[in-house]
Request: fold
Amino acid sequence: MAILRLEELEALSASPDLWNDPDKAQKLMREKNRLEAQINEVRKIENGLKDQIGLIEMAESEGEESLVTEAVSA
Reply:
């Protein structure tokens, strides 16, 4: 949902008429920047989780239970 809204805001921000209403344009840009920051944070967390899952799977396949425990607690 946030990604769809961001795409909508990006399309609106590309409009040549955007700055005809500076207050509206500033509000749009603030919302766009806020959504970009939130989405980037979620992606960063998602990538970290994927890395941890990969480490856990690798440790499990090699029978390294201590590494599994360490990765799960990280």
Notes: The chain has a mean pLDDT of 92. The two ends are 30 Å apart (CA to CA).
